[in-house]
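Q: I'm writing a short explainer about Pyrroline-5-carboxylate reductase for a general audience and would like to include a description of its predicted shape. Could you first generate the structure from this sequence?
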Amino acid sequence: GKVPASSILASAPSDKNLDAWRELGCRTTHCNLEVLQESTLVFLATKPHVLPDVLQEIRPAVGSHHIIVSLVAGVTLQTLQRLLPAWTKVLRLMPNLPCVVQAGAMVFARGSGAGDEEAALLKSLLSSCGLCEEVPESYINIHTGLSGSGVAYVYLFAEALAEGAVKMGMPGGLASRIAAQTLLGAAKVMLETGEHPAKLRGDVCTPGGTTIHALHQLEKGALRATVMNAVEAATKRACDMAED
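A: Of course. Here's the predicted structure. Afterward I'll give you a sentence or two in plain language.
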């Protein structure tokens, strides 16, 4: 809601990719250079192998007034600055899927040409899509392993929660809704209290109660170590993709 749809110009090779933008009331084009001519803040959201050609195309039109934000996985600020004019204001952004429901987790890093004003503008705009934090670029691959891929870990856990309830006799639809609300509520408590998750977990446990018996089973299944391994594996893969 911070920018009227009519102020947004989206470019893509085919109409298929532009239909969603038109439905939102945005203007569309098949010409990338037109976006540069009419916009100050430009988001690059291509596949990694497509980006070099796009940068070569737009490079002559990039001016000192432009702010270029890349959402492209694996492409470093160093590469972006090498393929664009040296003085270009470049930032690198990594969002995640829940941005589509304004509950995303995003991190961004700024290139050498981007200052506090550009960083503040990007953070202000993206705050409407969820949590947005500025970080060193080295954290971006970690964010991919933690949050970008982490959404899938949470869905797997939610599925397991619901299936456990189904096993005990609850209808599947109801179990899925309760599992989702449980995750939503737990996350909200973490964010609003700022408490460490270990402390909040302890608050739920009572001596000899249901929760500590359940947690014992999760510990026997090495849940924490497995999740830590998953974040590590996804982070390493993100680093490998950047090197490729």
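A: For your explainer, you could say: The first strand starts at residue 9 and ends at 11.
Q: Perfect, that's easy to follow.
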